[in-house]
Amino acid sequence: MHNPALKKLPLPSLKNLQTFIEVANTGSINLAADNLNITPSAVSHQISTLEAFLGRKLFIRSGKGMRINALGEDYLQQISGALNLIGRVTDKIINEPHGDILRIHSAPSFGVLWLIRRLGSFRAKHPDILINLTCSYENLQFSRDNIDIDIRHGIAQWDGYKTLTIKNERLLVMASPAYLLTHPVSGPEDIPNHNLVHSTVTLASWERWFSFHKIATRHPEYHLSFDRSYMSFEAGKMGLGLILESSLLADELLERGELEPVFQARYAYPVNAHHLVMPHINERSRKVKVFISWIREELAAEGYEI
Fold first, then answer.
1. Helix (H) or strand (E) holding 107
2. CA contacts within 13 A on the Cβ side of 234
3. CB contact at 8 A, 23 and 69
4. How far is it, in rounded angstroms, from Cα 191 to Cα 189?
5. Where is the HTH lysR-type domain (predicted)?
6. In this predicted model, which residue has the larger pLDDT, 54 or 86?
7. Looking at domain 11-95, which of 1.10.1660.10, 3.90.190.20, 1.10.10.10, 1.10.3720.10 is its CATH number?
8. Which of 128, 192, 203, 232 is close enough to 199 for a disulfide, judged by CB 3.0 to 4.6 Å?
9. Whole-angstrom Cα distance, residue 28 to residue 25?
10. In the chain, domain spans
11. Between 98 and 10, where is the model more confident?
């Protein structure tokens, strides 16, 4: 689609910008010339042309050479991300035979326990969109890492991005049927007498769960501690103790009977722990719209919403 607003913007030569970045990074016209495979005089000419276009000096000249000034530093910071984005998009078009790839980064436990189990449904409905899924607890940079959607775990505090929070998620006390058969739980006050599995990444600890439900008890002792929820789920399935984990991630395990909730719903702990995060420009993409519509339907079928 033609964008008439671009005609109104003062856009310098891409070649001049590339030269400017090279000189700014190397601090040398000669090194920049070698890296760009052009002559030093051509480098100087392109820098002068860019400065004339801007009507401002970007470098301080002296007998020892030239160094970038404060305005140049600011300009460098502002344009580097844009040029990097142009390069990545161009490389994507040139080198990817599949034209519609949706790149999703996810918190590991959500990716492993919820998303990957449902991707067959997405592919059946949208075979024209190829999913590329990576998982880690890093908050990646969208342009640098070429990510369309980042599914994050934590407290929503990402100003400047579109954030869709998954609602109605709860933390539940769960255990395997085998564990509960041999270690019956008489009530919430009995929990400290059991083997407790601690997850360091959930938004509420056992202590906070006790406090939320106004249950007076001694400080619980943990028998196992993990930094990934999917490890806590595995420990629970193996009968190693009680876990306090997400209802969202546990749905299939509960449905298959591999885990059981220890208490009724009144002893759940409400959280808003998972979020779909993206730059505002990404939400206008067709493939992103399709994915959001699909995941909204999947979540709604299980009692959640975004």
1. none
2. 10
3. no
4. 6
5. 12-69
6. 54
7. 1.10.10.10
8. 232
9. 8
10. 11-95, 101-167+273-301, 169-271
11. 10
Please state, rounded to an integer, the average pLDDT across all residues of the chain. 90
Q: 92 falls in which pLDDT band (50, 70, 90)? A: low
- Classify 157 as helix, strand or coil: coil
At 226-260, the pLDDT tens digits run 988 999 999 999 999 999 999 999 999 999 999 99
Cα 152 from chain centroid (whole Å):
5
What is each CA distance from 117 to 75, 111, 298, in whole angstroms?
A: 46, 9, 11
Residue with tokens 């395997």: 176
Q: Please report which residue ranges of the chain form alpha helices under DSSP H.
A: 5-8, 14-26, 29-36, 40-54, 70-95, 108-110, 119-125, 142-145, 177-182, 206-212, 229-237, 247-255, 286-301
Portion of the chain with pLDDT greater than 90, in percent: 70
State pTM to two decimals. 0.68
